[in-house]
Design a protein that fits this description.
Immunoglobulin-like; 3 domains; globular; alpha+beta; five-stranded mixed β-sheet; Flavocytochrome B2, Chain A, domain 1; Sulfite Oxidase, Chain A, domain 2
């Protein structure tokens, strides 16, 4: 994600991952720091610009530091690539806020029967739906609906309530306000008993109480800042959780993975097949939500999506079989069969219409012997937790977490990308001039490799450090997608006039091109 300003380009050639994390004194302007160093960090594919501020006040006892923002990183360019200003995630609004309410019946407003509503199921006759005790003509909202017209049409002539119990972001005050604009009357007798909605989230797994919950339904949460990057590997209990739908409960003994597609024979593999017929591989990989650190963007301009702090990221040691090996087992020959351009994944998590979560990655990543894409059944030496995809998930290192499909049920080799909503109308980057009124989803590619980014985890926001010292210990994490290693983190406390190079602890070791895990860093800053 990026916000405000830009860094200059490097000539005559690209260098990789000169990463600068910085803090600013109170009187320094962010733009001064941005312009002070034209090219402090480079990454593959997409780039990131974030700012952190810190106040310093000298007194007789020493120096008092107060961190105002936990962000870290400034500047990024990759030889001639253009800046993208924000990663927008359309499908999960801030639904954790109090649910919006539908206005009560009002005298003089038309009343319609359920039978009358049921006659309006197409654009020609107008598309009507009910929500609680209201009747709505949503014909003119079909094409603007973030989930696409087809999803809204599933409720045509009936109630949206069973669908909205699944996608509870619709209950946010913002969406309820939009909905009221399409209200044409009241439902005679109120909501009928036959649309009483069962809670699709009634059977969710237990989670650690320390997690900072962003939404309950679907469940999305991140660890508190003090636990983030406390150790090289993130404990399973504190690994961020990003769910789009209810968590499916899968019987591992009857589970089967179906593999099919262009130039392949269709095969079904049990979990035992995967564990016994293929070589087991282990990869330490960092997964990160595309919207990580969105709260910092919201502090500048309100945008859609979960208000993640810096914790929608985590690193684990995943074990399983290589996707490449499974594709070859099913007969895929990517070199001779040029028709296959994408590997699609489908999960077992689905909505009331049967639509499942899906995504895809390019064939080059999927079959590369150096891509290390796993079909993982273990996480940090244990079976995958329910929230993280038990019994099997994709782990695509260096690629945004949205493509690492959990509860994997199907793999498809195809000439086309996944048609899933989350591949086509979510997790894409646009100019800051693009909004919901003029967005053309087809004009932007789906995000794959993640941007380079870094964050300060200590001191925490609003921490005060008192005492007779001129030195403050600053700690954080840095990560870049595409397997590119972070090779330097610089920290400044004077607006970029001077820089301190941080001591690095790369979890991936000294590799520069298959660095799938984050780098922890620490600097003593005067």
């Amino acid at each position: 994600m990026s916000f405000a300003g830009r860094a200059g380009s490097l000539a005559p050639r690209c260098l990789h991952h000169l990463l600068q994390t910085s803090v600013l004194p109170a009187k320094a302007s962010p733009s001064a720091l941005i312009s002070a160093n034209s090219a402090r960090l480079l990454s593959s594919n997409q780039h990131s610009l974030q700012e952190a501020t810190q106040t310093a006040a000298d007194d007789k006892a020493g120096t008092s530091w107060k961190l105002l923002a936990s962000a870290g990183l400034v500047g990024a360019l990759l030889c001639g690539q253009q800046w993208v200003q924000a990663i927008q995630e359309s499908h999960c609004e801030q639904a954790q806020a109090s649910a919006g309410s539908v206005k009560d019946k009002q005298p003089g407003r038309p009343t319609y029967t359920a039978e009358e509503v049921a006659k309006h199921t197409n654009r020609e006759d107008r598309v009507w739906v009910t929500h609680k005790q209201g009747v709505y003509d949503v014909t003119d909202w079909l094409d603007a609906h973030p989930g696409g017209p087809n999803r809204l049409m599933l409720a045509a002539g009936g109630s949206v309530d069973p669908f909205w119990a699944m996608y509870q972001q619709h209950m946010s005050p913002e969406v309820q306000k939009i909905m009221e604009g399409y209200r044409i009357g009241d439902l005679e007798g109120g909501a009928p008993d036959n649309v009483a909605v069962q809670d699709p989230y009634a059977n969710e797994p237990k989670r650690h109480r320390s997690l900072v919950v962003r939404t309950d339904k679907p469940f999305n949460a991140e660890p508190p800042l003090e636990l983030l990057a406390a150790t090289p590997l993130t404990a399973n209990d504190f690994f961020y959780i990003r769910n789009h739908l209810p968590v499916p409960h899968v019987n591992a003994t009857t589970y089967k993975l179906r593999v099919e597609g262009e130039g392949m024979r269709a095969v079904e593999l049990t979990l035992k097949d995967l564990q016994t017929k293929f070589k087991k591989h282990t990869v330490a990989a960092t997964l990160q939500c595309s919207g990580n650190r969105r709260a910092e963007l919201n502090s500048v301009k309100a945008i859609k999506g979960l208000t993640w702090d810096t914790g929608a990221i985590g690193t684990a040691e995943f074990a399983g079989v290589r996707l490449r090996d499974v594709l070859q087992y099913a007969g895929l020959d990517a070199e001779s069969d040029q028709a296959v351009q994408h590997i699609q994944f489908e999960g077992l998590d689905s909505d009331v219409s049967g639509d499942c979560y899906g995504a895809s990655i390019p064939i080059e990543k999927a079959v590369s012997p150096f891509g290390d894409v796993l079909l993982a059944y273990e996480m940090n030496g244990r079976a995958l937790p329910l929230d993280h995809g038990f019994p099997l998930r994709v782990v695509a290192p260096g690629i945004t977490g949205a493509r690492s499909v959990k509860w994997l049920s199907r793999i498809i080799a195809s000439k086309e990308e996944s048609k899933s909503h989350w591949q086509q109308k979510d997790y894409k980057s646009f100019s800051p001039m693009v909004d919901w009124d003029n967005v053309d989803w087809s004009s932007a590619p789906a995000i794959q490799e993640t941007n380079v980014t870094s964050a300060i985890v200590s001191p925490s926001p609003n921490d005060s450090i008192e005492g007779p010292t001129d030195v403050v210990s600053v700690k954080g994490w840095a990560f870049s997608g595409g397997g590119q290693a972070v090779i330097r983190v610089d920290v400044s406390a004077d607006g970029g006039a001077t820089w301190t190079s941080a001591e690095l602890n790369p979890v991936s070791g000294k590799t520069l091109r298959r660095a799938w895990a984050w780098t922890l860093w620490e600097a003593e800053v005067e």
